[in-house]
Structure formats: structure tokens, C-alpha cells
Write a structure and sequence with these properties.
Elements (H helix, E strand, L loop, with lengths): L12 E6 L12 E5 L2 E4 L11 E7 L2 E6 L3 E4 L2 E5 L8 E7 L2 E4 L5 E5 L3 E8 L3 E3 L4 E7 L6 E8 L2 E2 L2 E4 L9 E7 L3
Parallel strand pairs: 1-4, 2-5, 3-6, 4-7, 5-8, 6-9, 7-10, 8-11, 9-12, 10-13, 11-14, 12-15, 13-16, 14-17
């Protein structure tokens, strides 16, 4: 998505967005797969919030799979896990043999707006590239929420920070990291 494809007053610039409708209707646990695809997202002309501007994928609930050599390249944040209230209370992001890259923010940002568990898997040669040096940045949107972030890494290429913002995530329960090496 380039700025040429957006209206001059556009405030939102997200490549793939798993979100509910304004009325709150929709699938309780949606799933999207990005398969052998390249997604490029630039900033909106009139940006409002960074979690909706220049974002490759945004998941408010459900599951997103980025697989089979896909590439998500965003000018701001690669993926935002912006936990909304959902029956499953889980948000899942799987990056398998693909690349997730951000221009100036974290590759993945957990930005909780409600109590949720975020399951992130990076596997099979997947690459995360954070424009600000953060592969994962855990924070919160508004209010007090309890968030758990589980990250599983299996045979992936990672170099960068995993950051827990204490001022922005004072009630975040845990951030668990599991790494599997292949020799």
C-alpha cells in the first residue's frame, strides 16, 4: 500500500487488519494467511496513531500466519498485536520461512487494550527486522490490562532487542521466550 493508493485525508494505513466492525460484529476468532506474498505499507498522509499508521499487519483478535517466503515490509511497525476483548482471549502470530520488517518501529509490537495471551512463533528461517532495533516491544494501549506474551523461536534468524516497557506495561504478566536450536 503506497500513499498513491490512499485518499489525501486518510488516517489509517494497515496492510492486513484482523479487526471487528464498529458495531462489534464479525467472526469471533478470525484467521488470515499471507502465503507467498509481499506486502509493502507506507505511512498514511494524515497519520493519527502509530498503531494504525504504516503497519504491515494488525491483529486485534484471531490468528495471522505469514508463510512460505512471504515478506511484510512496513514503514512503521511490522506487526501490531493490539489485543481487544475477544472470547478466545488469544492472539496468534506465526511467521514461518518469511520476513517481517519495520522501517522505524519494532518488528512486532504487543499493544494490549484488553486481557489477552499473545502467542508468537518465528520458525524455519524466518527473519524479524526492527527499524528501531526491537524485534519485540511489549506495552499497553490504555488502562490496566493483564497480558501474557509467549514467543517460540525455532530455527530463525534474529538479531535485536526484546523490550518490555515497564511504564507502558505495568500489569503485563510475563514474557516467555522459548528457543530451539538446530545443529
Amino acid at each position: 500500500m503506497t500513499t498513491a493508493g490512499l485518499a489525501p485525508g486518510e488516517r489509517l494505513s494497515v496492510g492486513v487488519d484482523l479487526a471487528g466492525s464498529a458495531a462489534g460484529f464479525g467472526v469471533a476468532s478470525p484467521r488470515a494467511t499471507i502465503n507467498v506474498t509481499t506486502i509493502y505499507v507506507e505511512d498514511a498522509p494524515v497519520a493519527s496513531r502509530d498503531v494504525g499508521n504504516g503497519v504491515g499487519v494488525r491483529i486485534q483478535f484471531g490468528q495471522m500466519d505469514i508463510v512460505n517466503g512471504s515478506r511484510v515490509d512496513a514503514s512503521n511497525i511490522g506487526a501490531v498485536l493490539w489485543g481487544e476483548v475477544n472470547p478466545d482471549q488469544r492472539i496468534r502470530l506465526n511467521i514461518d520461512n518469511s520476513t517481517l520488517q519495520s522501517g522505524r518501529g519494532a518488528a512486532i509490537r504487543v499493544n494490549a487494550a484488553a486481557d489477552n495471551t499473545c502467542d508468537i512463533t518465528v520458525a524455519n528461517g524466518a527473519q524479524l527486522i526492527g527499524g528501531d532495533g526491537n524485534l519485540l516491544l511489549v506495552g499497553r494501549d490504555i488502562g490496566l490490562v493483564n497480558t501474557r506474551t509467549d514467543v517460540n523461536v525455532d530455527d530463525a534468524r534474529l538479531a535485536g532487542n526484546i523490550t518490555f516497557e515497564p511504564t507502558n506495561a505495568p500489569t503485563a504478566k510475563t514474557a516467555n521466550l522459548s528457543v530451539a536450536y538446530k545443529w
